[in-house]
Amino acid sequence: MNEKMISELFDTIQKIFSRINSHPVYNQIIFNKEYRHRSYKLLILVLTGYLENQTQANATYIFSSAQINSIALSFFMAMGVHQQWSSLQLMGMDDPIQSMDEINVLSLIDLIRLFIEKYDKQFIISTHDYSFYQ
Questions:
Q1: Is the distance from CB of 69 to CB of 101 less than 8 angstroms?
Q2: Whole-angstrom Cα distance, residue 1 to residue 94?
Q3: What is the pLDDT of residue 2?
Q4: CB–CB of 29/14 below 8 Å?
Q5: Fewer beta carbons within 10 angstroms: which end of the chain, N or C?
């Protein structure tokens, strides 16, 4: 991937994350790469939305597992929008709502509806949550 593709992907990730994130303070994400232990590592940083006093923190240190899952889901869905190697307009997810609270689940449902309408994507979702199935 070149820098333009990465920038477009990360812009999409931010847009998706802002729709499904429920953290009351940290509502933006940025990405940095760092060279450690003979390879590059992707650092996920979260920012407060307050421009005059913006605070940055490492997401893995302050987010719950459900909030980390929302970042991972944002990555996955953004990659699905930008993929060009297959003509299938399909996204498969294995229990994406595990450890999500009701607010995040509802946000995800709204986001899936948006993807179906805007990007003409089809979703296959497996879950153990009967209420999500209904």
A1: no
A2: 26
A3: 61
A4: yes
A5: C
Residue whose structure tokens are 């003509």: 87
What is the reported pTM?
Answer: 0.78
> What's the token pair of residue 20?
């499904």
Q: Which has the closest alpha carbon to 24: 58, 72, 63? A: 63
Residues 79-132 have pLDDT tens digits of 888 887 888 888 888 888 777 777 778 888 888 888 888 888 888 888 887 777
CA-wise closest residue to 48 among 74, 20, 21, 10: 21
Handedness of CA 36, 46, 104, 60 (dihedral sign): positive
Pairing of strands 56-58, 39-48: antiparallel
Residue 132 φ then ψ, to 5°: -70, -40
Confidence tier at 54 by pLDDT (50, 70, 90): confident
**Which token pair is 104?**
């995040």
Q: Tokens standing for 50?
A: 């307050």
Residues in the chain, overall count = 134
Give the phi and the psi of residue 62 in degrees, each rounded to 5: -120, -15
